[in-house]
Amino acid sequence: MDLHRHTATSSAPDGDRARSSAGPSELSLLTYADLAEECKIALARANSPQKKQAWGNLLTLIEEIRGTGRTDAWDPTSGPSWDLVSLRIEGFQGATVPFSFQFDPTPGVTILHGPNGSGKSSISDGIRTALSGRSDWWAAVTPANARSGKSPLWEKVNCARDAEESTVEVVLMRGDESLRLTARIGKDGQVSNFDSLREVSGGEAASFEISETSWHYAVESHPPVFSYADVERRVQQHEDLQRYIENLLALGGCFDHLERRVEEISSSATASRKRLAAALKGAKERVARVDAHFFELEPQHHLPDVSWSEDVRDVRVWLTENGLTEVGATLPEVTAAGIERLAASLRDVDRDLELVLGDVPTVHHRLAVHLTSLHSEVEQVANSGYICPVCDSEVSDWVKRLADNLANVAETAPRRNAANASLKALRGAIEIIPTVLDIVSGLEEFDESLLDSLRSEYAALLAAFEAYGEQPIAPVVTGFLSIRAELSGEAWKSLSSKAIELSDISAQWRRGRRATLELYIAAWEQEHEEAESAPLWEATRKSIGELEDRLRTGRTVRFEGKAGVQVERLLKDAGIVLESVNLKRTRAEISVQGADGNKLELAMLSAGQRNAFLLAPLFATTGSGPFNFLILDDPVHSFDEIRVDRLAAVVSDLAKVRRVIVLTHDERLKEHLLARSQVCDAWVVSRDGIRGEISVEKTDELWRVLIKDAESVWQFSPKVSSTGYLSEVQIIRGLLRQALDDALRQCVVRYSLYSGENVAKSLGLLDEAMTTVKRLDVAKQIISLDPALPHPVDKARQACGHHVAKWNSAAHGGEEVKADLKLEIRAGLDACSTLGEWDF
Q1: Given a cut of 60, is residue 21 above it in pLDDT?
Q2: pLDDT at position 14, please?
């Protein structure tokens, strides 16, 4: 019998458990400092200005992200690792009735043993869901669902039968702080709410948004729960295996965030560049239409073509270089010929009116125009009557007399006709007046009252034309004389000259071009800076792809070495060796050598070997994450006896520095773990299928096993040979001493959990005592109870009495005269029962 296998071990100090102290071979989550260092190396190696600029740009972004991050934000993935303290599930999978369990958070093995359907997977899945806050598992893979038409046949139903909502909750501890994670799951099986609560000893509990930390990446990169059934079901294709392994490389949240930021910035810059190019294309098309319009108006006139560029550095300079600085709406053209035509028309009307209205012999001649007009109107009347409209007397033939008088002045008709023609020409010529006024309106150099006066005179003459036609009668003549007076001064010359200048076809053309460019100018001002950076960010995006490949390659080499060791430990007897791991972006290529030295396809592995092969990567990366525990659900699926023993050896080694919780129905694994593990507790899991109640009962504690071993030695050992390595007395007393130590340790752990003390600190104090007597003294100090109440340590002392010194001496090789060993065993049992079963 190996006495040393039962020796208690202390947990590693916090400094040894912090990921920050992990060596370079560890696959811990990448930090921004790591990424910055990789960028600096790549920048130093860059062999072209473009690559140097891209790597420099990436480094600047990393430093910017680091600088803008909240320095006071608490990240649960930083610092020492977390211990698992408790689990509570309700309405989850097979646990219809609320179930809770407290775990020993110190290094060692916890075995949860029970048949299929006893609720073991509900426990492991509950821990996984509470830690991750999601119903799926290690990879961001959306499984097929009923809505997709491919309803998954073997997916678990997370919300228990008849439950409206499921709740899973875990409590983690490290030092003086705890972390409570609670996930609530709806009827659809998806997590509907995920709460995180942090509490520091002596302080108030405070909730925080765990999604803003690296926790999700830590859970994916260092999965603390392994379920063979779940992993085997999801790892079916090369890309599944690639995702499984790449998650374990722990590129993590920093890299993902950096990659997303580069993609966002690059995509935004590219989109700006496209929008600016589209604006430029539209501007070209609109300017082309303006050019075609003016060229059609003046075929002999031509402006220099616009010099287009997709890389305009300064749009104002570009506008100046292309003569596109004139701003304003396109104006109707006013030419010198049009102004001269108006002046000539004014002169013609003035001359013809003088001939008609000037030096004539009688009043009939002077009024000929009016009389003619009156005669024309009378002819339109059906019955003109016999009352003269001039003298208002009764003249029966006044219309005939009017016609005779007109005949007498017929010689004036040519002059009247000429006056009519010149007035008609004037009516057309004055149309330029409102055009001139519109062009110069708003210019500071012209008084607006002058423009209003001209508009008024123009409107009056136009109204006279509308009322009386182009005849030299009084209202028309009055309107003409008024407009002539306005157009004869210097003011009109200035107005018309300015209008001619502003409506020059070249200016109009340039102004028309500029008017079509406003959309492009606005787009340039809004987009050019970002668009200009598009080539740099595209190069930066390629650089981050190179960085990802470099990180993946480097970490794959480390992973390959670690995983190779674990494959050898689990499969060496079968001659299976991991030769290489080649991880690409969409697939994983694994090279495995068989016992004959030839390459072995993964499909050639047996079910048990495949299980071992999937476990190896997990074991290879366990020590890098923020979890000081590991849950293994059915890890010996299809294992033979040798594989069970090899797995037990690996688990026992892992359990030296963390708590390993094994859920299994396999009696072989339980036996091997109990035999190999220095600290191990076992529990039987059962479930009432009707009520949905999961129960957990502890099997024999280690101290009880040790007492039974002592009883067996006392009962069945032969006469002790003088040449034997250990005497019967030494063996029994050594077992009793270790049983008392284990019971004392369990008592301290239970009290620390009950009182909220730091378990690792309590056990550290206990392990500093080198003798059993001193350990009892220290334990009494740690277990601080009301002096008026009985104390478990005192009760244990009373039970074992003076035997303690003999047990301690025997455990260190001391010789003792054979005494009443049966009595000593009874004393040890009483002392251990008191410590191991004390109810706080």
Answers
A1: no
A2: 34
| Burial of residue 81, with CB atoms counted within 10 A of its CB: 0-12 exposed, 13-18 middle, 19 or more buried | buried
Count each helix (H run) and each strand (E run) in the chain, helices first.
31, 15
Question: Hey, which residues does 89 pair with through a beta bridge?
Answer: 99, 168
Closest CA relative to residue 604, chosen from 615, 616, 617, 592: 592
Closest CA to 11 of 629, 601, 465: 629
Taking the chain, what is the end-to-end CA distance rounded to the nearest angstrom?
35
Token pair of 734 as six digits? 């050594």
> Of 555, 660, 542, nearest to 617 (Cα)?
555
- Check if the beta carbon of residue 794 is closer than 8 Å to that of residue 831: no
Supply 305's token pair: 């073509």
50-58, Cβ contacts within 8 angstroms, sequence gap of 24 or more: 50/539, 51/539, 51/543, 53/536, 53/539, 54/536, 54/539, 54/540, 54/542, 54/543, 55/543, 57/536, 57/537, 57/539, 57/540, 57/543, 58/262, 58/540, 58/543, 58/544, 58/547
**Phi/psi of residue 696, each to 5°?**
-130, 125
The encoded tokens of residue 140 equal 């961001």
What contacts 147, CB < 8 A, 6 or more positions away? none
d(CA 807, CA 823): 13
Q: How far is Cα 302 from Cα 298, in angstroms, rounded to an integer?
A: 8
The 3-state DSSP composition of the chain as helix, strand, coil percent (nearest 5) reads: 55, 10, 30
Q: How many CB atoms lie within 10 A of CB 407?
A: 8
Q: What is the rounded average pLDDT of the residues 18-37?
A: 67
At 206, phi and psi to the nearest 5? -135, 130
Mean pLDDT score, 497-514: 82
pLDDT, position 179? 93
| Residue 476, amino acid | V
CB contact at 8 A, 586 and 548: no
Q: Which of 50-54, 457-461, 696-700, 789-793 has the lowest mean pLDDT?
A: 696-700
Residue 396: enclosing H or E segment and its boundaries?
Answer: none
Over range 758-778, report the average pLDDT.
86
C-alpha closest to that of 650 among 695, 703, 611: 611
Q: Supply φ then ψ for residue 475, to 5 degrees.
A: -60, -40
CA distance 75 to 212: 9
Q: What is the Cα–Cα distance from 507 to 70, expressed in whole angstroms?
A: 58
Q: Give Dmax (Cα) for the chain.
A: 180
Cα distances (Å, whole numbers) of residue 368 to 29, 404, 405, 721, 813: 111, 12, 9, 169, 158
Q: Which two tokens stand for residue 792?
A: 């478990």
**Three-state secondary-structure class, residue 23:** coil
SS3 annotation, 293-353: HHHHHCCCCCCCCCCCCCCCCCHHHHHHHCCCCCCCCCCCCCCHHHHHHHHHHHHHHHHHH
Q: Beta strands 206-207 and 191-200: pairing type?
A: antiparallel
Backbone angles phi, psi at 666, to 5 degrees: -90, 115
The first and second tokens of residue 77, run together, are 């993935």
Find out whether 248 and 621 touch, Cβ atoms under 8 Å.
Answer: yes
Provide DSSP, 203-243.
S--EE--GGGTTHHHHHHHS-SEEEHHHHHHH--SHHHHHH
Strands 177-185 and 191-200: antiparallel
DSSP collapsed to 3 states, 119-175: CHHHHHHHHHHHHHCCCCCCCCCCCCCHHHCCCCCCCCCCECCCCCCEEEEEEEEEC
- 530, 575, 604, 90: which is closest to 267 by C-alpha? 530
Q: Which residues contact 124 (CB under 8 A, 6 or more apart)?
A: 225, 227, 631, 633, 663
Question: How far is it, in rounded angstroms, from Cα 16 to Cα 656?
Answer: 13
Q: pLDDT band for 88, please (50, 70, 90 cuts).
A: very high
For 591-628, the pLDDT digits (tens) are 888 888 888 887 788 888 888 888 888 888 888 889 99
